[in-house]
Write a structure and sequence with these properties.
Helices cover 41% and strands 8% of the residues. It has 193 residues and is mostly helical. The strands form 3 sheets. Strands 1-2 form a two-stranded antiparallel ribbon. Strands 3-4 form a two-stranded antiparallel ribbon. A two-stranded parallel sheet has the order 5-6. Helix 2 (63-75) runs parallel beside helix 5 (113-129). The longest helix has 21 residues, at 11-31. The model has no long low-confidence stretch (mean pLDDT 84).
Length: 193
């Protein structure tokens, strides 16, 4: 929805993307009528590493507000009478830890800013559509990128989890495992967290 490579993503391109997602979800629902579907990252506060970026034309852009606006825009794209928000059964914001130790991004996670931004986006989606859906935030036990990649991320995860469990629609957390062999230590990692 808000790729790091481009500062501006056209509404036409976002609309086409959202229509493609709606079509794919509906195709899967025909084959798997009892399955529940979400869109990875729908409701995410993206790019905690930056708060403001400068476009090629020299304009400063607030990353969080831009992400929120684009989430709201794509949630309203309609295909065959159904919005993207209608097509998903639950929201799945992603809050992987990637920040560098001692960085301003880590500081914003520690003070709860990223978790509060997630709640703000989710609330805006619920308000715009007049409906609350289950929210299942996605975390990883280890850092996903950066200089701390594959190191334990419990400290920052626990800060954000303690805030997010009080958001409207909160259902449960899901943990991302990049490799199947990581599952062997799941219970220990869960208990430590």
């Amino acid at each position: 929805i808000d790729p790091p490579e481009e500062i501006v993503y056209s509404e036409e391109r976002l609309r086409n993307w959202a229509i493609g997602v709606i079509r794919r979800i509906n195709a899967f629902k025909i084959r798997c009528p009892n399955a529940k579907f979400s869109l990875w990252g729908f409701g995410s506060p993206q790019r905690s590493a930056h708060t403001v970026v400068t476009t090629a034309s020299g304009n400063e852009v607030d990353i969080f507000q831009r992400t929120k606006e684009k989430m709201l825009f794509v949630s309203n794209v309609i295909h065959d009478g159904q919005t993207l928000f209608d097509a998903v059964d639950f929201l799945s914001p992603v809050l992987y830890q990637k920040s560098e130790e001692g960085s301003s991004a880590e500081e914003r996670i520690e003070n709860g800013e990223r978790a509060r931004q997630c709640i703000e986006i989710v609330n805006a989606l619920f308000e715009q559509h007049g409906e609350t859906k289950p929210v299942v935030p996605t975390f990883a036990f280890e850092y996903e990128g950066g200089s701390q990649e594959n190191q334990n991320a419990d400290r920052l995860n626990s800060i954000e989890m303690s805030i997010l469990r009080n958001m409207p629609g909160f259902s449960h957390f899901q943990m991302w495992h990049a490799y199947y062999n990581e599952l062997s230590s799941f219970e220990d990692k869960r208990d430590n967290l």
